[in-house]
Amino acid sequence: MRLWDLHRGNAPLVVDVPHAGTFIPDALALRMTAAARTVADTDWHVEKLYAFARDAGVTLLAATHSRYVVDLNRDPSGAALYPGADNTELCPTRTFANEPIYADGEMPGAGEIEARGRAFFAPYHAALQAELDRVRALHGYAVLLDGHSIRAEVPRFFAGRLPDLNLGTADGASCDAALAAVAAGALADDAAFSQVVNGRFKGGYVTRHYGRPEHGVHALQLEMAQCAYMDEAPPFRWDAGRANALAGVLERLVVRLSEWRPAGRRA
Prior knowledge:
By secondary structure, the chain is an alpha/beta fold. The protein has one domain (4-259): Aminopeptidase (3-Layer(aba) Sandwich), CATH 3.40.630. It is 30% helix and 15% strand. It is built from 7 helices and 7 strands; from the N terminus they run ββαααβαββαβαβα. The protein has helices at residues 26-29, 34-37, 46-49, 110-139, 177-188, 205-210, 240-259, and strands at residues 4-7, 13-17, 59-63, 142-150, 165-168, 195-197, 217-225. A 7-stranded mixed beta sheet has the order 1-3-2-4-7-5-6. Helix 5 (177-188) packs antiparallel against helix 7 (240-259).
């Protein structure tokens, strides 16, 4: 099975969705618990929310394999994204509900984790890097929007209810300040959705690794509360009414990110 779906566009914007996948190879699924095989921690339907971007000339890259196989938004060195907080690993061992992912005696060792990195993590990131390089060659710069979603309440990681829209720029390090303001403004234009910038989610490995504004690559992460567009309980139903309202916000965001130009660069 292919590792990602790619639609290639010629706009300055690349949208990637690293946690969209639900596929787990059979041999690996047999080692997992029943709770893990529901892949409840998937960023459900996020690639569908951004499907409109294809018609806007935006590049869209979405992973096909579950984050339980390998988490494409974690530092492969093992460095924690949020030191002092509860962090999941490159090959997660517990679900967001703090349930074991593997049956007794079936957790992957260091050698297996390294092999999964070579088989799944490295190819995906090579593809993402290639798209950013291609877009930057076309425009002289590239904008990356890293798309995510999570249940609105996950006590393992944060207290209370998450805002609907959580924009992260690694505390301003991953993109031009003017671009961050454009993105925040696009989200704030719709008062129906609560929003925050660099709150609990400041950007994962993708945002921090690729966001190099001094080299012409500007990266942002948008983490959305799933209750804003779907049912958070199995079977994780897409709610067209809620999703349509949220898609309007995302369309505005994508348009503004695509139209933004670095200072001194003409359209």
